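Key result, reporting period 2: structure in, sequence out.
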């Protein structure tokens, strides 16, 4: 019997098969998973902003792409994943607000997705699938028994990446 483990906003969790990690309401936020297909250890971080260096009060490392992804990597390896086998998937990064004059706030989703790619490249982890951008929110589930990343969005068919 598997447990459904909820990951909040600006939060991260690690699990092993047969458990499932889920996070709700990814708008401009990114839900990034790391998964080891051999040990079936997976992790999910739900981060809100790309870069912790832009803010002074950034004690919550899971809130930011740069620090959240690094911490998730650390935790999945401690839980038994092999860094060399890890694969990553990302979802979210939507443009949820219509913003005039191309203000930076309107590009948060795009910058969040870009930060995921920068950090994964830095750590040498392959990004094997993504469902990002557009203008709708997503709820996601990582099934640690097979690495499937289920994407649910209102009014759209469920998608597995």
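The corresponding designed sequence is given below.
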């Amino acid at each position: 019997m598997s447990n459904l483990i909820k990951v909040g906003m600006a939060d991260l969790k690690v699990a092993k098969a047969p458990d499932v990690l889920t996070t709700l309401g990814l708008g401009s936020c990114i839900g990034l998973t790391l998964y080891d297909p051999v040990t079936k250890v997976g992790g999910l971080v739900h981060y809100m902003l790309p870069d912790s260096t832009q803010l002074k009060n950034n004690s919550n490392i899971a809130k930011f792409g740069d620090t959240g992804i690094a911490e998730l990597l650390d935790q999945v390896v401690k839980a038994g994943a092999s860094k060399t086998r890890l694969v990553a998937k990302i979802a979210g990064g939507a443009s949820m607000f219509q913003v005039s004059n191309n203000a930076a706030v309107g590009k948060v989703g795009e910058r969040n997705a870009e930060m995921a790619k920068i950090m994964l490249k830095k750590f040498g982890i392959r990004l094997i699938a993504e469902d990002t951008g557009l203008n709708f929110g997503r709820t996601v589930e990582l099934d640690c028994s097979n690495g499937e990343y289920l994407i649910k969005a209102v009014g759209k068919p469920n998608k597995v990446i």
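The mean pLDDT is 93. The beta strands are 4-6, 11-16, 20-26, 30-36, 41-47, 87-92, 126-132, 138-143, 149-152, 159-160. This case is discussed further under Risks and Mitigation.
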